[in-house]
Amino acid sequence: MIFQTNNSKRPRSSEITPEKDYLNRRRFLKSVGYLGAAAALAACAPAVNRVNPTPMGVAVTKRDEFGDISTPFDYVAGYNNFYEFTTDKEGVAPMSADFTTNPWQVEVGGLVNNPRTFGLEDILKDYDREERIYRLRCVEGWSMVIPWEGFSLSELLKEVEPTSDAKYVYFETVYRPDEMPGQKQPYYPWPYTEGLRLDEAMNPLTTLATGVYGQPLLPANGAPIRLVVPWKYGFKSIKSIVKITLTTEQPATLWNAIAPNEYGFYSNVNPKRPHPRWSQDSERRIGEGGRRDTLMFNGYESQVTDLYAGMDLFENY
Hints:
By secondary structure, the chain is α+β, with helices and mostly antiparallel strands. The protein contains nine helices and 13 strands. The chain has helices at 19-22, 25-31, 73-78, 92-96, 120-126, 153-160, 198-201, 254-258, 301-304; strands spanning 2-3, 105-110, 116-119, 130-137, 142-152, 168-173, 193-197, 207-212, 215-216, 226-228, 241-247, 282-285, 292-293. The longest helix has 8 residues, at 153-160.
């Protein structure tokens, strides 16, 4: 069923290979090469050779609750921020193609009455996943509309029974530098960490995603399980999660620890609060021409405004 509730560098033009090829790295390396000039797309949007833009059976006319058409599959699969592999958005897909996602476990503990370690097979079997077509807005000024498959994080948190002392939820990405070459770089304090207030984590929009475009989540998109928080900038939606911990203190997060003047803990999409290096007033939707106005809370204002009642959202950015 379709559930429609309510993160300056100009991208380099390069070829994005069809999913069936890049999922096999050897075939991908053999098949890379220009097949001819790509058609000019939107200014500042990545150029793509549209050899097989969607896998078999994927609809191209999905729409979100605002009526916006979903971003074509080849962009969703081939244009990603995932620094654990590379800072090159178009390089993530080929570099992550051999990433091991099975077996996989997610440890959930901290201030809970019933700590558990969930196997991926348990999550896929025990939770009713559904299509959730959500906007993703990245702090660099680009956005997508993505058909995720997942379920509300609150469902899993209820299973572990947070105690009355739990105020925040801390997330941690897998640390596997042998498979994730970006983690060998000394510039970032790996592993990647993120956090939410507990009430944010319990909001129905906050999703644990295990699929995209009707198929299992791709490594480039954060397989096998990732967070999706659609009213926050994309870097809050941590990928390839292995640990969730409930705490009483606000947890340290990677980007906030590195550059607190640029990346606040909340990181709500707020066009009135500019990033020191980029305006947030407008965004470019990948695959479209021109720019569009950025909406408060990425358009999900009616569903999340109450979470921040009385807060100064310029100070609490």
